[in-house]
Structure prediction request, 635 residues.
Amino acid sequence: MISYEHVFSPFRFGKVEVKNRIATPPMLSCLATADGFITQEMIDFYRAFAKGGAGMVNIGDSAVDIEWGRAHYMQLNLGHDAVVGGLSTVVEAIQAYGAVASIEINHTGILGDPEVMGRDPIGPGNMHQGLIDEVVDHFASAAERCLKAGFQTVMLHGGHGNLLAQFGSARTNKRSDGYGGSLDDRARFAREVLGAIRLRVGDRLALEYRISGDEIVADGMHLEETIEFLRLIQDKIDLVHVSLGGIFDPSTIPFMSQPTYLQRCFNVHRAEKIRDALGIPVTAVGSIRDLAAAEEIIATGKADIVAMGRAHIADPDLVNKTRRGEESDIRPCLRCGICGERPARYFPVRCAVNPVAGRETEYKWLRPADTSKKVVVVGGGPAGMQAALTASSRGHDVTLIEKEDSLGGALRYAAGPSFKADMREYLDWLVKKTLQSPAEVRLETEATPASVRALAPDVLIVAIGAEPLVPDLPGVRASNAVWAGDVDVGSAETGRTVVVAGAGLTGCETALHLAQAGKKVVLIDMLPESDIAQDTTIAGREALLSLLREHGVELKSEVTLTEITADAASVVDGFGEKVRLPADTVVLALGMKPLSEQARDFQGLAPETYTIGDCMSARDVMAAVHGGFNATADL
Ligand SMILES: Cc1cc2nc3c(=O)[nH]c(=O)nc-3n(C[C@H](O)[C@H](O)[C@H](O)COP(=O)(O)OP(=O)(O)OC[C@H]3O[C@@H](n4cnc5c(N)ncnc54)[C@H](O)[C@@H]3O)c2cc1C
Ligand SMILES: Cc1cc2nc3c(=O)[nH]c(=O)nc-3n(C[C@H](O)[C@H](O)[C@H](O)COP(=O)(O)O)c2cc1C
Ligand code: SF4
Prediction:
């Protein structure tokens, strides 16, 4: 049994004492008003982390200057005194649970979206001295407003290619005046910003500086230079927050918030190197998913604070659950990245597995139902399981019927490839929670309209899923043509040379799974290369495509599968030419077809009937889980 003694020990930086070593990193929620003010939704989103036991909670990316330095719609505007009163309410909510309230202040510089700002962005390349002085002043004023609102610490966003990083990196700073050239000159802007903040707030605010330990791209800043940069500002900061990558190049996006294909604790070694080199307190971040990992990081002196972002979104109570010894109850994060992708596209934060995330205000009233109803759920995939969990937790009498001998549905296939450990943990958690719930689970029972009618439910939830799309082509039923899902779970064998047809998320993952097992894989799709794997996040897609290249998977886009023979897949290319691709096995990953007709057979069998998940529209875990929750949260 892990004692977690290091994680649950207090830590001091500046004048701030944090009750434990777990923080949330900055996570923009896009829950502010359009003009940058706080909302109740925002307060409740961040409050959940404090209530759940995190020692320090950060309000994500907040613009020091909404006119020039804004990255997003629905982002906080720290450029006006009017924001202070509202800000104080989120501080109040966080501090009520004994957590430290922190906020990331940022100017996005040349990466600002002209449409969002209504003007062209500014950066090291076009900022004259007057503008530099103005922005420095905006940082100082923003920090002062945060102090007035009650924040105990402020994090400056010096990473991910934002303005402070644009000045720091020779990749973006081509100036030849005192702000560019040598590293010392490139650090001048950061020093001026920090100096101006210190002048205004003294040591009443602790200052954390977020930086990308490595910008990843060849001409970007790398760890050694990052360390030297930090050495130049070290006297003005209390804590360094070591992130990675940036928003400036699609290839670096996966490194900021690593998808499931990348290893856990991805960036800890950079935090450790910075801590060792500078002797300054550091925060480690990046795919640290549980407190066991955090304990190891703190105990071995790799970092002083561990920031856990998505793990907190998936289960805001993770710290308190760990403290109580309820680790197995923590809802695992998939590292699917949907939560981060939504704010990046100016949509409010949501989570695939935690249907309440970003909607805490709306579902505060989730409470026992006034009247217990008899609820029958048909289908034990994620949609059906979530429906059963939510309905039974609210006091309804739930029967879940699943025709297979185990719960999981298509999630079992999604969790199949070796690199989907996050998905496997979630599958295990969801199945366990469902079996532990008051819902009665009937396995190996195929529901029919007659059997459902006999149960006389008040509410019927139809969650019977989808089936693989199999095109009507010569050879498609032969033994060397198999479905991707079966390959993923090992119930279908493939030969040494494989053609995978369909380069959506599933096809790409299966191709990678096979390539990692030493197969020679050709991945084909009708779509142009720019359109493949678009059914996942930008970070997921970038990481997946890069891994496919790394593992030698050959991609053939704009070709159409026409026939499968004993030793080949025949395709027609963009010029109408027939091409023969040698293959021992052809793997079909051509999408899923909702079981809508079968679902229709169940309509009208109960006063209330809901059709949810893949049988309504074949999509993903998030749609299934949210479908299950939404159908039952207000029964
Ligand atoms: C190979 C593969 C990989 C995937 N990878 C991902 C991924 O990485 N990320 C992601 O978000 N999504 C992924 N998905 C999609 C995701 O798994 C589905 O969207 C999700 O499982 C749909 O959930 P559901 O509950 O609606 O349906 P399902 O999971 O299909 O569950 C339906 C259940 O109903 C049962 N059932 C059907 N008829 C009856 C009946 N008459 N009586 C009783 N039981 C019945 C079935 O046996 C099944 O267990 C993947 C899907 C596949 C196939
Ligand atoms: C929903 C979401 C919003 C984010 N917003 C910000 C942000 O505002 N500023 C920032 O510097 N990083 C942001 N990030 C990146 C995180 O701070 C963090 O570095 C990253 O998610 C890796 O940590 P994790 O694996 O613990 O989630 C965001 C990530 C997520 C998931
Ligand atoms: S949306 Fe995905 S990555 Fe984000 S917290 Fe939820 S499960 Fe994790």
Notes: The domain at 374-467+594-632 is CATH 3.40.50.720 (Rossmann fold).
